[in-house]
């Protein structure tokens, strides 16, 4: 029997599962995404652009991006710090804490929104104390930021902690013996070793923040031109029956997500590998 | 002194991983810590570097106490087994890292970097990154990086452990050259004896957290003090014989014991025979003349070759010799074999025909006596801790190996004791003690433990009247010396040996004297006379003999005769007047019912505050 | 100290893309010279169907008028959702200055929660009612099920789309319309039977009247119970109704012989009105009852509180319109009809 024959048999047997997979994926993932673009461009480019340049749509996109940038920046710092503490220090309660910081992934985002309202809202635990002072984080951009920080917190941690876990302690120790302070060691030895994780973690955080809906709808107050993020805008327009408006922004979000995932794939192998959560 | 370590201790949980390590390393010296994995050698190095904090002891680097300083403040260079080269920095940046931290001007940095890269043999590779270099090259970078800022000492943790044998050799030479040229003090940790010998000015041998012995490689090889030194460094045969009249007797063979080697008459003595000290000659069927060709001054024995292996220049031959009564082999370890196995090495070109050879010796080495073993025990029924105020001191002064025994009533208690014992050992100042837990009657179990593990002393800290029953049983059952530590005296420096007259009394003096010598105590020999008047001559001659025995042990001593109605009265009076810390008492064989002698011990326990040492008589 | 710079981003293209996105996001807030000051804002929450009328007609007209009068640019920021949802958000503390709820009951809830002073809306013009719209039935083109009245909704095989009375004020109006039409024809039993018939056939409940319309537009059900205004509003472009045409899908409005006219109540959330905003808020409140604003509402399918302005040719005839006050006001309606009949009798019989 020749190699070619074996190859032929192989092709025959692989066609079936591959075909089945495509058949499953088509209506499950591929076609819905395609539908967004089809509907967005249904009325022609002109209508698409008009829908996209509407003041509210522009605001929603800009607001979403701004929140995503802020969320990514803050969580890059917080997530790295958390990963460092959880990876390098041994203390009682470390494991429960490691589970706790990953909890936002498991928690329904609506629950996150509700819990934030019950904490920071005007009738909430802390909010009721802040309210007399004229401080009111909920239904404000800062409330949206808080929700996004909460929801996306584990992504940075998940991207950075495995790298820290694998980074042998001797690198740090080498820097110490050479004379580098803790900060210098972190800045010049640890941080550079984490840059792949920082990069993918930041992108993932950004992408998730851009698409966040459940928690945002609870805490934003859904004020157009004030706290309405792009997903909220899409939902509001869709509910109002303005499919063209909804789909124009949806298409932009989809393109942004593709771009982010393309970059992730391009620079850090599979996004899935970066997406793994901290292991316990 | 470049490095001085004093009584360094490091514990993890209940486990002592570095146990009172003291060491001095001279300026410019290359000191190698040699030991198996888990011996604590790397921990010592990390303590010196400041990467971990000691639980006790101090570290001086060039006269400066750095014990509590951070690694950054110590100014040391450290080379790791895994190189730990910063991957996102080029070779040049790695080497310059320490200089940049120290804000050295760029030109000076570049000069120093080029110089070092040349010296480690990496000239021109400055722009490479870690992934472009081999393991050997990486370790050269690590070496250059650690030396760049001229550290006071260079510490190397198994630096060649991950490298090929051939690369290792090259790197060793580079390291040795560089270290000598720069005159930097270095401490290197390795498990590889060959590496230790090749590099070291001096070697320190570590086992189970302790620095057993230090010395030049040659000394360590040819004249080790400890069994571990004899067997871990190089190969060889260790036999145990008895010391009699200045010789070790191995069957018919009597090897003279050098004067400087401590030994006790009739005690076990361990003899090390290195393979190159063994002489072999073909056996020619009982022809006495030919056998004379072996230049062995100690005669020969006949054996059978059981194994030969070719080692290149040399050939190793393992010969089986018939067993010798009263002699035991320790190394190489044999199991289920009564015969001895002796290793010899001969030039490889010499073929040994046949399987039977004559074996002779051209040299041997006698090991120092083993460290005494102490069994500390809590004797309270609830396993309550008796205090051992002097225990820690005793262990230190005797360089003893302690064990701590707790006895519980039932399984539950035993489990509780097991988990609590390491912690209690620390509380008692016996952190290094091997924890032992038994179940049953305290006295019986102490005796059983002693029989099982053959301790040199059983140490208790009883109250004045408590646990009398336990002591009674112990006195009956124990066949080893029983030390009852009591009182508030800071040390044991004044001994009162209440010696029995006659053959038995010699043991009292011998054991008491042995202890006195190690503790640096002075001794009074006491005889209690029932009747007034001049003592009989046999009494004075026994006492005088005792004093001269003690003199031979370099223990200052005198003797004294006291009149009293009973021995107990006399001893109590003398002990109180003289302010003695320890009263040594002999007693008769442990068999039989409670005798008068044991009564003496118990009475003394009640009426004295001093510690007591009760020595059994050898039958 | 100069040390190698750890690259945070890989690839200049990615970096460029990231920076451009950032600049785009921040553009309106960048402090560039020549930028006008950000305008003053009022926050206006409205129930779902008000969206187009307010955003595209009434509020821009007000903003223009204010600018013409004072030279100051102001912006009215809006948020629209089901009336119940808005009420809940207001109770949670959203910073609304004004809210237009679809029924007085929600205003009462706000008063109960301390968001507004009790009865404060009754001091506004027309007791706070800004506009009205009757409850009607929207059916598929050609009315294939032959629906003429609420009683027809109880026929087997008719699938009804209805907003959810838990979150939608419109749904409560719907319940009252269904019960009231039967009651006025044949007393309490007829009212109950009509209501039961409708709810037996409800196949979809949406969170708001607007969402219910979107469901219906997407093909759910045979008939939608909704505001006349909803039915008149052109679904496709979102432009104002007033053309008299039914929705772009060709759906037909069926006017029941007897139905309720919903009344939409404005509340001023005084505690959120900063002192400096007071005159602006008051001006907007006054404007909502001006003929100009009322005409705009009529153009967008609402019926004005001033009957002489109701000249929209698309408005159909209702033989026997009634108001909530005919049934004793929302307090009683809620207690006796919504809770007492709909929730406790109808819903238990329907098994939901």
Descriptive report:
The complex is a heterotrimer of chains A (280), B (619) and C (352). Chain A is mostly helical and 280 residues long. Helix content of chain A is 80%, strand content 0%. Chain A has helices at 3-40, 44-53, 55-88, 94-106, 109-120, 127-130, 141-166, 169-178, 182-193, 195-211, 214-219, 230-239, 243-268, 271-275. Chain A is globular. Helix content of chain B is 32%, strand content 30%. In chain B, the strands form five sheets. A ten-stranded mixed sheet of chain B has the order 24-23-22-25-26-31-30-27-28-29, sandwiched between helices. In chain B, helix 3 packs across helix 4, helix 13 (442-453) packs parallel to helix 14 (468-477) and helix 17 runs parallel beside helix 18. By secondary structure, chain C is α/β, with parallel strands linked by helices. Chain C contains ten helices and eleven strands. In chain C, helix 5 links the parallel strand 5 and strand 6 (202-206). Residues 1-9 and 235-247 of chain C have low confidence and may be disordered. Chains in contact: A-B, A-C, B-C. Chain A binds chain C through residues 59, 61-63, 65-66, 69, 117, 121-123, 127, 131, 136, 138-140, 188, 191-192, 195, 198-199, 221-226, 228, 236, 238-242, 245, 259, 263, 266-267, and chain C through 3-4, 6-11, 14, 17, 21-22, 24-28, 41, 43, 48, 51, 75, 77-81, 89, 91-95, 208, 210-211, 213-214, 217, 235, 238.
The neighbouring-strand order within the major sheet of chain B is 24-23-22-25-26-31-30-27-28-29
Number of helices of chain B: 18
The overall average pLDDT of chain B, rounded, is 83
Give the helix/strand class of chain C: alpha/beta
Keywords:
heterotrimer; A: 280 residues; 14 helices; 0% strand; disordered N terminus; C: 352 residues; alpha/beta; 11-stranded mixed sheet; 18% strand
Concise structural overview:
The complex is a heterotrimer of chains A (280), B (619) and C (352). Chain B is globular.
């Amino acid at each position: 029997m020749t190699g070619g024959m074996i190859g032929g048999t192989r092709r025959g047997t692989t066609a079936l599962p591959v075909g089945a997979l495509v058949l499953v994926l088509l209506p499950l993932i591929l076609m819905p995404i395609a539908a967004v673009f089809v509907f967005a461009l249904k009325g022609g480019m002109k209508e698409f652009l008009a829908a996209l340049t509407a003041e509210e749509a522009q605001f929603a996109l800009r607001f979403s991006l701004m929140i995503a940038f802020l969320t990514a920046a803050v969580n890059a710092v917080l997530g790295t710090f958390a990963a460092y503490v959880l990876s390098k220090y041994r203390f009682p309660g470390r494991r429960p804490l490691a589970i706790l910081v990953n909890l936002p992934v498991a928690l329904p985002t609506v629950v996150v929104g509700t819990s934030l309202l019950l904490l920071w809202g005007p009738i909430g635990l802390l909010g009721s104390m802040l309210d007399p002072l004229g401080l009111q984080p909920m239904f404000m951009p800062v409330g949206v930021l808080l929700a996004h920080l909460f929801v996306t917190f584990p992504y940075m941690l998940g991207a950075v902690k495995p790298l820290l876990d694998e980074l042998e302690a001797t690198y740090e120790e080498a820097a110490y013996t050479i004379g580098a302070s803790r900060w210098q060691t972190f800045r010049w030895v640890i941080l550079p070793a984490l840059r792949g994780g920082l990069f993918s973690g930041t992108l993932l955080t950004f992408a998730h923040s851009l698409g966040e809906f459940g928690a945002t709808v609870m805490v934003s107050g859904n004020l157009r031109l004030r706290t309405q993020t792009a997903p909220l805008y899409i939902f509001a327009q869709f509910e109002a029956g303005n499919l063209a408006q909804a789909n124009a922004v949806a298409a932009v979000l989809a393109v942004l997500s593709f771009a982010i995932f393309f970059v992730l794939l391009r620079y850090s192998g599979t996004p899935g590998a970066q997406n793994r959560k901290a292991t316990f | 002194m470049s490095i001085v370590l004093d009584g360094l201790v490091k514990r993890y949980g209940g486990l002592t991983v570095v146990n009172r390590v003291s060491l001095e390393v001279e300026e410019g010296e290359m000191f190698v810590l040699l030991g198996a994995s888990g011996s604590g050698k790397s921990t010592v190095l990390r303590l010196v570097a400041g990467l971990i904090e000691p639980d006790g002891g101090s570290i001086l680097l060039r006269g400066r106490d750095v014990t509590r300083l951070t690694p950054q403040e110590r100014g040391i260079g450290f080379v790791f087994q895994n190189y730990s080269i910063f991957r996102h920095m080029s070779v040049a940046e790695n080497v310059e890292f320490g200089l940049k931290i120290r804000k050295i001007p760029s030109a000076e940095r570049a000069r120093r970097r080029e110089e070092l890269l040349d010296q480690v043999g990496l000239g021109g590779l400055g722009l490479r990154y870690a992934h472009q270099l081999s393991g050997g090259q990486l370790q050269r970078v690590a070496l250059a990086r650690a030396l760049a800022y001229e550290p006071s000492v260079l510490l190397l943790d198994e630096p060649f452990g991950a490298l090929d044998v051939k690369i290792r050799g090259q790197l060793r030479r580079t390291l040795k050259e560089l270290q000598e040229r720069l005159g930097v003090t270095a401490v290197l940790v390795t498990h590889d004896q060959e590496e230790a010998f090749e590099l070291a000015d001096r070697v320190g041998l570590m086992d189970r957290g302790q620095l057993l012995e230090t010395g030049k490689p040659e000394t360590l090889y040819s004249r080790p003090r400890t069994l571990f030194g004899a067997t871990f460094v190089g190969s060889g045969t260790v036999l145990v014989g008895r010391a009699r009249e200045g010789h070790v007797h191995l069957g018919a063979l009597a090897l003279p014991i050098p004067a400087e080697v401590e030994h006790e008459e009739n005690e076990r003595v361990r003899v090390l025979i290195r393979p190159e000290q063994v002489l072999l000659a073909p056996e020619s069927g009982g022809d006495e003349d030919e056998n004379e060709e072996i230049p062995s001054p100690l005669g020969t024995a006949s054996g059978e070759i059981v194994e030969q292996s070719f080692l290149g220049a040399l050939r190793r031959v393992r010969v089986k010799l018939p067993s010798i009564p009263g002699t035991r082999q320790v190394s190489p370890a044999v199991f289920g074999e009564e015969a001895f196995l002796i290793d010899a090495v001969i030039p490889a070109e010499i073929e040994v025909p046949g399987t039977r050879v004559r074996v002779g010796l051209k040299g041997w080495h006698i090991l120092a006596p083993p460290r005494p073993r102490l069994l500390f025990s809590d004797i309270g029924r609830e396993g309550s801790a008796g205090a051992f105020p002097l225990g820690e001191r005793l262990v230190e002064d005797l360089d003893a190996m302690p064990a701590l025994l707790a006895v519980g009533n039932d399984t539950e208690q035993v489990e509780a004791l097991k988990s609590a014992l390491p912690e209690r050992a620390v509380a008692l100042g016996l952190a290094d003690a091997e924890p032992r837990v038994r179940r049953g009657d305290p006295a019986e179990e102490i005796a059983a433990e002693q029989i099982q593990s053959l301790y040199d002393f059983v140490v208790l800290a009883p109250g004045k009247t408590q646990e009398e029953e336990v002591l009674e049983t112990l006195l009956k059952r124990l066949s080893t010396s029983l030390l009852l530590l009591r009182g508030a005296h800071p040390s044991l420096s004044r001994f009162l040996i209440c010696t029995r007259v006659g053959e038995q009394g010699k043991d009292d003096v011998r054991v008491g004297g042995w202890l006195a010598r190690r503790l640096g105590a002075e001794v009074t020999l006491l005889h209690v006379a029932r009747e007034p008047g001049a003592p009989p001559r046999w009494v004075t001659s026994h006492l005088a003999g005792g004093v001269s025995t003690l003199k031979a042990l370099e223990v200052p001593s005198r003797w004294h005769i006291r009149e009293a109605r009973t021995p107990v009265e006399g001893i109590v009076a003398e002990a109180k007047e003289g302010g003695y810390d320890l009263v040594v008492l002999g007693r008769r064989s442990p068999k039989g019912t409670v005798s008068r002698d044991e009564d003496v011990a118990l009475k003394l326990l009640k009426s004295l505050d001093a510690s007591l040492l009760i020595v059994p008589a050898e039958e | 100290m100069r040390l190698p710079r750890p690259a945070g981003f890989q690839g200049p293209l990615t970096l460029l893309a990231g920076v451009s996105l950032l600049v785009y996001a921040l553009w309106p807030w960048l402090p560039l010279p020549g930028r006008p000051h950000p305008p003053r804002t009022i926050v206006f929450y409205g129930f779902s169907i008000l969206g187009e009328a307010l955003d595209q007609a009434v509020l821009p007209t007000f903003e223009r008028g204010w600018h013409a009068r004072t030279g100051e640019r102001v912006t009215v920021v809006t948020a629209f959702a089901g009336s119940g949802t808005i009420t809940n958000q207001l109770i949670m503390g959203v910073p609304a200055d004004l809210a237009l709820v679809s029924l007085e009951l929600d205003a009462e809830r706000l008063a109960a929660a301390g968001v507004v002073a009790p009865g404060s809306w009754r001091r506004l013009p027309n007791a706070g009612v800004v506009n009205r719209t009757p409850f009607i039935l929207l059916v598929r083109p050609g009315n294939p099920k032959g629906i003429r009245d609420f009683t027809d909704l109880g026929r087997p095989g008719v699938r009804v789309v209805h907003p959810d009375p838990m979150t939608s004020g419109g749904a409560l109006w719907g319940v009252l319309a269904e019960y009231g039409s039967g009651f006025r024809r044949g007393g309490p039993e007829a009212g109950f039977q009509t209501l039961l018939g409708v709810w037996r056939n409800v196949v979809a409940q949406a969170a708001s009247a607007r969402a219910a319309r979107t469901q219906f537009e997407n093909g759910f059900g045979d008939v939608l119970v909704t505001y006349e205004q909803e039915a008149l509003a052109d679904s496709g472009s979102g432009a104002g109704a007033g053309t008299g045409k039914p929705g772009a899908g060709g759906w037909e409005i069926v006017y029941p012989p007897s139905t309720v006219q919903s009344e939409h109540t404005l509340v001023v959330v005084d505690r959120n009105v900063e002192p400096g905003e007071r005159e602006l808020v008051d001006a907007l409140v006054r404007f909502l009852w001006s003929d100009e604003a009322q005409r705009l509402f009529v153009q967008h399918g609402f019926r004005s509180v001033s009957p002489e302005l109701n000249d929209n040719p698309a408005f159909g005839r209702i033989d026997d319109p009634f108001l909530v006050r005919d049934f004793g006001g929302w307090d009683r309606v809620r207690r006796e009809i919504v809770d007492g009949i709909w929730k406790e009798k109808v819903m238990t019989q329907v098994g939901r």
